[in-house]
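User: I'm curious whether this sequence folds into something compact or stays loose and floppy. Could you predict its structure so I can see for myself?
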Amino acid sequence: MRPVLPLLLVFFSATLSAQTIYSCTDAAGGKVYTTSRDFTNCKPVSKSNDAGGSSAASTPGTRPKAAATPTPSDFPRVNEGAQKARDNDRRHILEQELATERRQLEQARRDLAEQEAVRPAPPAERLLPYRDRIGQHERNLQAIQKELSGLR
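Assistant: Here's the prediction. I'll summarize afterward.
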């Protein structure tokens, strides 16, 4: 955190004095912001246009928004009905996968319970694959539910 303060001071003082700020690479490969090109691979980041310090380019850490480009006229388009049908198909497939994962999770839990019921008690490392299967099915369920929640 300590190296950031001098960097910010240099950046803001340079902006206020209407100088160009450069983003450079130092000898160790780190980023350095400066008003001179004392380092290698320097690129201008911003230049103040007036004494008030408004900058023509974005400040470090933010990106300018991309200009809106119109979609080319020959770009393939899907009509609304076809897209709704695709969305419905996707939802149906995800719901089927969700039901399958739930069945597999229940089966994995039954398999673990059977192994735990064996006497004498099995060693913990023998139960590990059963627990891993349960964990995998639980993660799959979460992923499918997240995917379903993102559908419109």
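Summary: Confidence is low (pLDDT under 50) at residues 49-58. The first strand starts at residue 20 and ends at 25.
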